[in-house]
Design a protein that fits this description.
The protein is an alpha+beta fold. The protein is 17% helix and 25% strand. Bound molecules: zinc ion (ZN) (2 copies). One zinc ion (ZN) binds next to strand 7. One zinc ion binds next to strand 6.
C-alpha cells in the first residue's frame, strides 16, 4: 500500500477552488415545496440537483428564507472540512460506487443522510462518490450505511455489490 502523498484535495483556479454559487430556498433544500433553485450564470435547476450541489463543499451555497433573506452562506464554511474529507479519502480511496475506479480528486463527499435533513457531517455519514455517481445517488440510486459500510441500491430497490475498502485503517 502506497502512502497517500501530501497534496491538496482539488485543483485550484486563480487561488480559489473551482466553485459555483447555488441559491435555493429552505423549502427546496428540505424537499418541501420550494421554488427557488438557481445556479449562478445558469438559471433555475431542479431541486434535487441543488441538494446534490449543497451536499459537498465544492459549491458555495446561499440558502434563503422567505423573500431572499440569506440564512446560510456556505463559501467560508465548507460543508465537509478538509481534515474530514481526508479521512473519507483514506477510508474509501476512490469513488465508492460499486465497480467505479474514479480517483478521489474527482469525487465529492456525499452525505448519506443529507445535512439539511439532520444528517451529521461525520465519517460514518459520508461516502466518496465521483460526480456521475454522486448525481446517480441524488436521482434514484440509494445508499444506506449498515455497520459502517455503504449499501447501494438501484432505483428498483435491488442491491448492488459493494467492493471491499481499498485500505485497512490502523
Ligand atoms: Zn450528495
Ligand atoms: Zn463513481
Amino acid at each position: 500500500m502506497a502512502a497517500q502523498p501530501s497534496r491538496t484535495d482539488r485543483p485550484v483556479v486563480a487561488g480559489e477552488r473551482p466553485h459555483v454559487t447555488v441559491t435555493m430556498d429552505l423549502e427546496s433544500l428540505e424537499r418541501r415545496a420550494g421554488r427557488r433553485c438557481e445556479l449562478e450564470d445558469a438559471g433555475p435547476i431542479p431541486a434535487e440537483a441543488a441538494r446534490r450541489l449543497a451536499c459537498d463543499a465544492s459549491v458555495a451555497r446561499v440558502i434563503t428564507s422567505g423573500r431572499s433573506e440569506p440564512l446560510d452562506v456556505g463559501r467560508q464554511t465548507p460543508v465537509v472540512p478538509a481534515a474530514l474529507r481526508r479521512a473519507v479519502v483514506v477510508r474509501d480511496g476512490r469513488c465508492r460506487f460499486p465497480s467505479c475506479d474514479r480517483p478521489q480528486a474527482w469525487c465529492d463527499a456525499h452525505h448519506v443522510v443529507h445535512w439539511a435533513d439532520g444528517g451529521s457531517t461525520s465519517l460514518d455519514n459520508l461516502v466518496l462518490l465521483c460526480r456521475p455517481h454522486h448525481r446517480a445517488v441524488h436521482s434514484g440510486f440509494r445508499i444506506e450505511m449498515v455497520d459502517g459500510r455503504p449499501v447501494f441500491r438501484r432505483p428498483d430497490g435491488s442491491p448492488l455489490e459493494d467492493r471491499a475498502p481499498p485500505q485497512v485503517l490502523r
